[in-house]
Design a protein that fits this description.
Strand order of the largest sheet: 2-1-7-5-6
Order of helices and strands: HEEHEEEEEH
Number of domains: 1
CATH architecture: Roll
Number of strands: 7
Helix content: 10-25%
Distance between the termini: 60 Å
Largest sheet: 5 strands, mixed
Bound molecules: FE2/S2 (inorganic) cluster
CATH class: Alpha Beta
Number of helices: 3
Length: 97
C-alpha cells in the first residue's frame, strides 16, 4: 500500500507530522509533544476525558479556535495550533506567597 494512503500529513504548530487514518487530533498533538493549551494560572494542559466533556484538549484547527481535539479526526493538510510552548507571564503568580 502506498505511503500516501497509509498515513495523513498535517502540521502541529508548523511541524509536519504523519498519522494513521482514524487518529484524533488530540493524539496527533500528543505525538508532537505539545500541550493543548495553557491554563489561566500558566499550567500546561492536555486531554483529560477523551470524550468531549472537559474541554482541556482545545486547539485551533485551520484557524478555528477552541476545537475539542479529542472529537476530531485528523485530515490531510490540517493545520493545528496549540497553546504557546512557553506560558505567558502571569502577574497573579508574582503576588503569590
Ligand atoms: S479531552 Fe476532554 S473534551 Fe477533549
Amino acid at each position: 500500500m502506498p505511503e500516501s494512503v497509509r498515513s495523513l500529513a498535517l502540521t502541529v504548530n508548523g511541524v509536519p507530522i504523519a498519522v494513521q487514518p482514524g487518529t484524533t487530533v488530540a493524539a496527533a498533538v500528543l505525538m508532537a509533544g505539545a500541550p493543548t493549551r495553557i491554563s489561566v494560572t500558566g499550567e500546561p494542559r492536555a486531554p483529560l476525558c477523551g470524550m468531549g466533556i472537559c474541554f482541556e484538549c482545545r486547539v485551533t484547527i485551520d484557524g478555528v479556535p477552541h476545537q475539542r481535539s479529542c472529537q476530531i479526526l485528523c485530515r490531510s493538510g490540517m493545520q493545528v495550533r496549540t497553546a504557546p510552548s512557553e506560558p505567558a507571564a502571569n502577574p497573579a503568580r508574582e503576588f503569590a506567597p
